[in-house]
Amino acid sequence: MTAQVKRSSLLGGHKWLWLSLVSLNLVLGWAALILPTAPGLPSMENIQLLQAFSEALFPSADWRLTPLAALEQQILMELKLPRAILALSVGCSLGLVGASLQGLLHNPLAEPGILGISSAGALGATLTFYSGLAATLPMAVPLGGIAGAAIATLGLFLLAGRQAHTATLILAGIAINALAGGLTSLVLNLSPNPFAAMEIIFWQMGSLADRSMSHVWLSLPLMLLGWVSVGAAARSLRALALGEFTARSLGISMPMVRLQIIGGAALAVGAAVAVTGVIGFVGLIVPHVLRSVVKQDPAVLLPASALGGAALVTAADLAVRLLPLQVELKIGVLTALIGAPFFFYLIARQRNTADAN
Amino acid sequence: MWRASILLIASLSLNAVGQPARVASLNLCTDQLLVLLADPNQVASVTWLSQDSRTSSVAKQSQSFATNTGRFSDIAHLQPDLVLINSYAAAATRQALQALKLATVEIKPAATVAEITTNIRVTAMALGQTERGNAMITQMEQDLAAIESAQAKRNTNAQPSALILQPNIITVSSGSLPSHLLIRAGFVPALQKFSVGYTNTEAIARLRPDLLILGDHRNKYPSLAEQMLDHPLVNQAAAQIKIHAADWICGTPRAIAVISQLDTARRRLTAPSPADSQ
């Protein structure tokens, strides 16, 4: 692997990449606020959007605009805004964690969904939610998700070892996925609530439908902590791309890097899964698409994957919102339909490289 | 008029007073008619759902009866004289009943008050309890007439809109019993704008019904489906009432009580405010 280690600043060398990723997210975020949550419902007008935000920011000011229907404002602030924030932040978490795990494990197939981190997070969240704990302590659900994700990530390291072969790591991921998925189904089946068993599909396929601002307040701060933790490892990952021995000689503390990434992954993915369920493949597709664009530089790949993940999840959520179906499709169905062929391509490419050696 | 189809496959074996002695029901709705109309010693088996007060209006009376899970295999050993089934009974159940030549009465789920009375009449006749059935129907008709004459006296044409909302943001479809009862009570079902049962929070918010009708039961342990009803956008309708689900899952005399409850809500919604009357 010939990673180019540059001394340039993270932002300097890729002006066009940042410009396009940021504007893509701005356009998608704007569309998520303007467009309806189901086909056949009216879109919001730009002027209404501006007015709603102005009124929300400065409630006492006189804006000399036609008074916005209270309903439009409510739909924006209590339905579309939390949904857009969660799509962006959950996508950001998944893209960022995918890129950082791929860098840490030197493994192109590392991804929170495939490694079982997401499903273990979902298990933690279901345990705290369906037991009724969340009724008295709402924070318990994201904390449960984080605990589940942390246990899975640590378990992965114990099962597969630090420098695990790709196959070993994926095998460990399959085992964790199977265990967490099975236990989640068990929790839902054992719940005395008759609706619980039908909610397996939400936890396994994910959805952003009908989330409210309370879900944002519960998960976003924890996701932010996770991003900071993973982001702090960005420069170490750049050194790590040259090999663990070289990284150590450059003064990188490997236990510290692992702690930053594992802890950050657990925080970001656990908190995300706790409010949206498992949305797979985002952490796999995004870093792979962007890796060649950033010339394999892991330190640049992390923020790029974060922005790319945010854009992918927001775009996928817009698609499930607007698909003309009677029941809204779960967003994970869409990311799986995009992601699985990509996964096949990666496997084929890996095999070709192996054959060539 | 008799829209419930009767399938008397074999001649009933009747007791001394001309009633089937051991009657089993394989459906929650036929359970309730059976429990309401039969003598307790006529009841051989009802479904387990009929003992659950969340779904059954005869939960108390059903506690002492043997239960089944709606499958023929559960009642085969009882050798019932008569089996009550719903018209959506599983094909395998029908085949088994036919193969054993068991007397069967098939009851179509009622979607209107008229269909409820038909079902009562048919079930009562099959049970040899015609008088009890007629008395029940008369009582229902009197209660309904009392509500309707009071409505006529109030002389208001206002038809507020109402939306029935169940966990998972599901509304009931038009043509169902709840929808019929809403119309009988003088409401316009807000769901008429949708052709489907499933709907979406934004769509619900945009309907802005005058009345939101929710179930009265909340499970002790949470579910996402029920949590959706707490979304600030759902919970904003001007007025809300709660209707006990067991009162309108199946067509029973409780339907009249539901009309009465809805009528009270409509009276409150359409009553002239004190400011208007001055």
Salient structural properties:
heterodimer; A: mainly alpha; ABC transporter involved in vitamin B12 uptake, BtuC; 71% helix; 0% strand; B: 278 residues; Rossmann fold; 9 strands; disordered N terminus
At a glance:
The complex is a heterodimer of chains A (357) and B (278). Chain A has 357 residues and is mainly α.
Kindly describe this structure.
The complex is a heterodimer of chains A (357) and B (278). With 357 residues, chain A is mostly helical. Chain A has 15 helices and no strands. Chain A has one domain: ABC transporter involved in vitamin B12 uptake, BtuC (Orthogonal Bundle), CATH 1.10.3470. With 278 residues, chain B is α/β, with parallel strands linked by helices. Chain B folds into 2 domains: 113 residues, Rossmann fold (3-Layer(aba) Sandwich); 120 residues, Rossmann fold (3-Layer(aba) Sandwich), CATH 3.40.50.1980. Chain B has 12 helices and 9 strands. In chain B, strands 3-2-1-4-5 form a 5-stranded parallel sheet. A 4-stranded parallel sheet of chain B has the order 7-6-8-9, covered by helices on one side. In chain B, strand 8, helix 9 and strand 9 form a beta-alpha-beta unit. At the A-B interface, helix 3 of A face helix 8 and helix 9 of B.
